[in-house]
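Annex B. Sample input.
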Amino acid sequence: MLREERELTERAARIEALLDEIDSLPDPAVRGKVADVVQGLLAFYGEGLRRMLAIVERDGRTAGAHLLEAFARDELIAHLLLLHDLHPVDVETRVARALEEVRPYLQSHGGNVQLLGIEGGVARLRLQGSCQGCPSSIMTLKQAIEEAIRKAAPDLEGIEAEGLAELPPRPPAFVPIATIARKEKTAERHSDG
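Annex B, continued. Sample output.
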């Protein structure tokens, strides 16, 4: 893992730890911890902005559309843009591109997938091919499709696929993956209690 990526992971872990502490502290102590969370988030977003500036400096001579594509390809910047509803590529195009990337894998299993459209934040798909009758192939394809789409379009609310059992809705999109893990831990604590 690169040093920069390790530092981002460590920051995300620190934010996670602070969020857990905030959930369990009485109100007077919360203010100080919230300040720490804000500082961690600012550092996280600062890294995203730093990456944007590095791309502009490196590729400054290219057309604006190329720069926006470069921003969209960087995972951290893409999440920042999604968070602020500024992503330069619409959700349907991102889903279509994700399916194109996973298509060779699907075809190697005798299948394919067609994007029927995006309605109400839900990607509607149709599974195609000879793999539909094999439960293990269906599960493999389902996982490949879900992973590709959720990586490209974390802002989707769900995925529905004809020929597959409905894929579970995705958690709300936000840059720090640690935040999603925190919600899952909180749910586990409440179910255990």
